Automatic annotation (TrEMBL):
Any single GO CC term annotated in Swiss-Prot or TrEMBL for this entry: membrane
Annotated organism of origin: Candidatus Argoarchaeum ethanivorans
Keyword list, A-Z: Translocase
A Pfam family the protein falls into: Hydrolase
InterPro entries per record: HAD-like_sf (IPR036412), HAD_sf (IPR023214)
MF (Gene Ontology): copper ion binding; P-type divalent copper transporter activity
Biological processes, Gene Ontology terms: copper ion homeostasis
Gene3D superfamilies: HAD superfamily/HAD-like
Name of the protein in its database record: Cu+-exporting ATPase
Length: 270
């Protein structure tokens, strides 16, 4: 059984520079360049769910007044849970969405408009919702865009040259993660989308049976469980985020830029 090193990357905020928009539906207020994970983590019962559409811009052609609950049913739209602090099923999230009577397609259109406004250099664009499982409603509509941080392809190539296997574990859609993997030189079987914090930890623990060491690289509180499970936890500060003390205390190293990672890994495995 192989015992060489593995590096597991988060995607959004780690490999991809992110711009995120949230609309507070109750206050009709747009929040720009926010950390949606930090927002969700403030309340244990909040879940972030991504809306699966082949082309999210198609939503701009749909009736604005349609409730999100009807939009999912009418167009047979699936969702995926990307961030939750507790085990929860997709069926439970959908049940909560169906009880919401305020959020509409217009809310999704508005956050998407804001994300796309005046910006063409993007790797991917996504839309989603925050669901309050306690209140059984949708407090926020969400959208984000991502573009590769500089030198990501060179960093992955350098890790491969060191004999390191590279993985991605991300809350983003599986198709988006596979596309990212193809783009930067990681095989699709080493890419795991729709990875909640619990699943990221499971991935790290499973890889520890095959690799030594397993290094987790992430940027936010949703990487905390994977950090704790890893042999070395590296927090990248390249993406601006609010980072609680418990996250900073959980890591072995912090880096300001992703290209600082390669010498750290080289020193560890030499």
């Amino acid at each position: 059984m192989s015992k060489h090193a593995a590096v597991v990357f988060d995607s959004a905020g780690t490999l991809l520079s992110m711009y995120r928009i949230a609309k507070d539906i109750n206050k009709n207020l747009m929040l720009c360049d926010v950390s949606t994970v930090a927002m969700a983590s403030k309340k244990k019962e909040c879940v972030i769910a991504v809306i699966h559409m082949e082309d999210v811009e198609d939503i701009q052609q749909l009736p604005s007044s349609m409730p999100i609950r009807d939009f999912l049913d009418t167009y047979n739209i699936d969702i995926g849970i990307t961030c939750t602090s507790q085990p929860i099923t997709k069926d439970a999230v959908i049940k909560a969405v169906k009880k919401d009577n305020k959020a509409t397609v217009r809310d999704l259109q508005e956050v998407l408009d804001e994300v796309l406004s005046g910006y063409n250099n993007r790797y991917y664009v996504g839309i989603g919702i925050m669901v309050d499982m306690e209140a059984q409603n949708i407090p926020y509509a969400l959208s984000s865009r991502g573009s590769l941080f500089p030198h990501v392809k060179k960093i992955i190539a350098a890790l491969h040259q060191l004999g390191v296997d590279v993985y991605i574990a991300s809350g983003d859609r599986q198709l988006d993660i596979e596309h990212l993997a193809d783009c930067i030189g990681i095989t699709q079987e080493k890419s795991f989308g729709l990875s909640t914090p619990l699943r990221k930890r499971e991935i790290v623990n499973r890889l520890k049976k095959e690799y030594n060491p397993v290094i987790m690289v992430g940027d936010a509180i949703n990487d905390l469980l994977a950090f704790e499970a890893s042999d070395m936890a590296i927090l990248t500060l390249q993406q601006y985020n609010m980072r609680p003390a418990r996250l900073l205390e959980s890591v072995d190293k912090t880096i300001n830029r992703l290209d600082e990672l390669v010498p750290i890994v080289k020193e560890l495995i030499d």
